[in-house]
Amino acid sequence: MHIHAYEKLWLAASIVLILLLIGSVTYGAVGPGVAMVSDGEQPIDAGALDEDDRFAEPRVEQVGENEYEAYVVAFQYGFNPDPIVVPEDSRVTFYVTAEDVIHGFQVTGTNANTMVVPGEVAEITVEVDEPGEYGIICNEYCGPGHHVMEGKLEVVSASEYEERAEGGDDA
Ligand code: CUA
Question: What share of the chain is helix, strand, coil (3-state, %, to 5)?
Fold first, then answer.
């Protein structure tokens, strides 16, 4: 059987297109910095966060020399704590849960962006260097106040962080 040269060309082109499509979908799912929310964690009781070890008192904790953990609760319409204060040059792991409905947690200017589901704990790590401010926004529609739901990540100098910690008001 004779196949026309043009037909061969289009056959080859369509196979290349299919491979590119598969490649781009795969890259989008497992590319650098892309991870699914782990489902290894036990679900927690969204209705009783005030009795939960991690979320009764939303806070930032130091867990290593330059390592911090932030326990954050998303609610209609905000984040607690707000602002989240961490020192410069640190690695911050956020554990985020929701007390009412599904929210989003995106730290603008970083690749941290996750869905926050009641009863689930989303975990996401960000490295910060220079002092500065990052907006935190909710990008899942969560009610009529969705568009005003925002928080702030404040990266402060090491000395300012110590001062604030001693003051005890932002910890
Ligand atoms: Cu919370 Cu949108």
Answer: 25, 35, 40
Give dist(CA 154, CA 86) in Å, integer: 6
Q: Are 124 and 114 in contact (CB under 8 A)?
A: yes
Separation between Cα atoms, residue 54 and residue 39, nearest integer Å: 18
Q: Which parts of 31-157 fold into alpha helices (H)?
A: none
Report the DSSP pairing between strands 103-107 and 113-116: antiparallel
Per-residue pLDDT of the chain in tens (171 residues, 90 and over written 9): 788 999 999 999 999 999 999 999 998 888 777 776 665 667 888 888 888 888 999 999 999 999 999 999 999 999 999 999 999 999 999 999 999 999 999 999 998 999 999 999 999 999 999 999 999 999 999 999 999 999 999 999 999 998 887 765 544
Q: Are 134 and 152 in contact (CB under 8 A)?
A: yes
- Nearest residue CA, atom 1 of ligand 1? 103
Query: What's the length of the chain?
Result: 171
Residue 140 CB–ligand 1 contact under 6 Å = yes
Report whether residue 146 contacts ligand 1, using a CB cutoff of 6 Å. yes
CA distance linking residue 122 with residue 134, whole number of Å? 19
Retrieve residue 18's tokens: 């299919």
